[in-house]
Amino acid sequence: MGSLVWRVFAAAVLAALLLVASTAVAIWWTARQDARPSSDAIVVLGSAQYNGVPSSIFEARLEHAAALWEDGVAPVVVTVGGKAAGDQFTEAEAGRDYLLDAGVPAESLLAVPEGVDTLESMRAVGTAFDERGWSDAVLVTDPWHAMRAERMAEDAGISAESSPTRQGPAVQTRATQFRYILRETAAYLLYRVTGESIAGAPGIG
């Protein structure tokens, strides 16, 4: 009996390790993709902002979204994200204002000022899409965040592909990339098991 219990335990541990490893590889693979299909909107996932000024991570996403808009990927750029206690600006508002200054016209921008993490943000964007009869989106976020963002968007009723930014702190060094992949692996598996999101570093919650 003891031998059987040990074999079952060893098989369970091996299965768990294989699941973690395969998820990490899938996150790495998705991060290397760059999909730019014609869509209803480009959705920029929010990150930290400071008194209306996007953080370096957020700025890299916004610059990439502006380039996609200029290339005609979609007629509208959606910025999304709420604000922390004490903040005067939401992430969505900071992103919208940055894109306005970058030359994207107001009629091509939509701010969805909701969400303290990716899951809440994607649900808010899903509602905004439903109200406008939209269905397709290109998501702009950091490479390692792309797979979980796509999954959450699909669960919110959006047909989503991602075009991750290749700039910013999240992609500067191999050590940083490895750390983000580990965090995203844990966050993705938690979401698939519980349907919940977690708080963490920018782009992780």
Protein described:
This protein has helices at residues 2-31, 56-70, 91-101, 118-132, 146-155, 174-194; strands at residues 41-45, 49-50, 53-54, 77-80, 109-112, 136-140, 159-162. The protein has 205 residues and is α/β, with parallel strands linked by helices. The chain has a single domain, classed as 3-Layer(aba) Sandwich (Rossmann fold). Strands 5-4-1-6-7 form a five-stranded parallel β-sheet. Helix 1 crosses helix 6 (174-194) and helix 4 crosses helix 5. Residues 40-186 form the DUF218 domain. Keywords: Signal.
Explain briefly what this protein structure is.
This protein is of the alpha/beta class and 205 residues long.
Key features?
205 residues; alpha/beta; Rossmann fold; five-stranded parallel beta sheet; 6 helices; 13% strand; disordered C terminus; signal; DUF218; Rossmann-like_a/b/a_fold; Cell_Envelope_Assoc
Q: Tell me the domain tally.
A: 1
Structural class: alpha/beta
CATH class call? Alpha Beta
Approximate shape: elongated
Order of helices and strands: HEEEHEHEHEHEH
CA gyration radius, whole angstroms: 18 Å
Please report the distance between the alpha carbons of the first and last residues: 43 Å
Q: Helicity range of the residues?
A: 40-55%
Regarding quaternary structure, what we see is: single chain
* Main pleated-sheet profile: 5 strands, parallel
Tell me the total number of β-strands.
Answer: 7
Beta-strand residue fraction: 5-15%
